[in-house]
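Encoded backbone
================
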Amino acid sequence: MTEIYEYIAQSLIFFPGWAAFILKKYGSSSLLKTSLCFGILFSFSLAFAQLSYKGEFEFSSSVSATQAKQLDSSQFSLALRAHLEADYDVSPLSFRLVLEPGVNLNGPLIDNVVFEPGLTEAYALYRLDTLDFSAGLERLPLEYARLSAPFSIEPIGKTGLKQGLWGARATLYLNDWRVRPALVYRSQDEQAGAVISVKKNFSDFELEAHTLYLDQRFALGLGGSGLLGDLIIYGETWLLSNDFEGRAALGLSGFWDDKLWMLEAAYAPNPLVPKVDAVAQILGQISIPQGENGSVEFGTALAYLDQPPLIPQTLYALINASYQISEQDYTLSTGITALISEQSQSYNLNFSLTGFF
């Protein structure tokens, strides 16, 4: 970084001399003067620009075993992941870059390698008093649910992380209102569309409505969150034009002494049941502090499916428990997960170490 600032300082020192030489040699036309003025302004803007960055690196490993009616299997996997954020501010213009590259090695003999470049966000943002313009690759989360995902338009990378959408958007702020129209393009499946979101903040809660066209279908959505006494209530509902299919989630969150808990009911896609678009499910999670820097977390998810003859009637249960300790420079976690259904049982033991900078 020191070399960059030295270069900027030298540019500021020598730029006026070069400008005088150019005017003397090539004349002083209006176009040339204008170009030199923009050059001077750009040099000064670079000098006063602010670059900030942060990131993390994660190493994880897991061992899993699956028992089915006539098939038993086991698998060992390793994963390396990074999360890098960089923001460059030349007010009122700013640039943002987010990279989440990752490598997964899995299989009985770690013979399957999955690499994800992880370009998540790369966009420019221009801020006015009550209006923002942005263009590039930018995330566009629409969900309010916390344990499920009833509806999302963001693509998912090879390592399971959500990524941004190419396009342009404007955000208008009017007192307690926010209006955000956006044109989007999802390069993974070459789908173009448009989204309009309107958000209203009240004293104790907020509501946000969405209208969008993507994947060759229309969708209407309404989500929100707010206070219900000492509890937080949140939820969302969606209506899709494909056979008027619906998605929804409703949840509660709060503290029981110093323990943070969440309880949610949803009709939404679930990775436990990958063959169907949506399934009824109940999800819960509780986090229990352990000392100053540690915590134990328990979670469960129950999903019921009955779609004969494609999928027989069955109940899917996911149970997980994990322990995490966090320090200023790193986080260490380990846990166990069990997935149980009438057809199979799967168990997973995992370990991860994350370092921050």
Remarks:
- The first helix runs from residue 2 to 26.
- The longest strand covers residues 50-68.
- The radius of gyration is 26 Å.
